[in-house]
Amino acid sequence: MSEPMVPLNIAVLTVSDTRTEETDRSGQALVERLTNAGHTLVEKRIVPDDVYRIRAVVANWIAEADVQVVITTGGTGFTGRDSTPEAISVLLDKRIEGFGERFRQLSGEEIGSSTIQSRCLGGLANATVVFCLPGSTGACRTGWDGILAEQLDSRHKPCNFANLVIPGRGQHG
């Protein structure tokens, strides 16, 4: 990779009724990975498992010109108040179908058939790429290390999502 990586501006949202900044290991794992990769953390927040509060935060971020990527963690399962996919899917202009498929493939190697309970999703919304990961720290590591690290690297070939959100590029490669 001879060309320099173009750092992206990334916002991280933890969806949880119980986590605080001190106990949010999943959100912190994402922040560590994205900053270690050379990207910029624009904002990190925690909101309860509430479809409208999740949607409001993400809608505000995708409306901001300086946010190129939104990554959420939590609320993608089937229990009680899990509602991240419902909150986010209505905001998407295009879904990245392969994101959930690839995540479950990688996750299946780690946790077996339990991976089918992950409703993680990805998509494009207002020239912002949005990825929703499960709430476990392991799932965040799997999602970042196995997919997002490459797809958010402007040098990754043959294509990546970074070049879709970098102003003036608007293409895959």
Task: Give your account of this protein's structure.
Keywords: Molybdenum cofactor biosynthesis. Pathway: Cofactor biosynthesis; molybdopterin biosynthesis. Belongs to the MoaB/Mog family. It holds the Pfam family MoCF_biosynth. This protein has 173 residues and is an alpha/beta fold. It contains 6 helices and 6 strands, in the order βαβαβαβαββαα. The protein has a single domain, classed as 3-Layer(aba) Sandwich (Molybdenum Cofactor Biosythetic Enzyme, Chain A), CATH 3.40.980. α1 links the parallel β1 and β2. α1 (25-36) runs parallel beside α5 (137-151) and α4 (97-111) crosses α5 (137-151). The radius of gyration is 15 Å and the shape is globular. The relative contact order is 0.19.
Key terms for this structure?
single chain, 173 residues, alpha/beta, Molybdenum Cofactor Biosythetic Enzyme, Chain A, 6 helices, 6 strands, 38% helix
**How many helices?**
6
Structural category: alpha/beta
Question: Termini distance?
Answer: 13 Å
Low-confidence stretches: none
- Number of strand segments: 6
CATH architecture: 3-Layer(aba) Sandwich
Q: What is the string of helix and strand elements?
A: EHEHEHEHEEHH
Q: Any idea what the shape is?
A: globular
* Average predicted confidence as pLDDT: 93
Could you say what the CATH topology is called? Molybdenum Cofactor Biosythetic Enzyme, Chain A
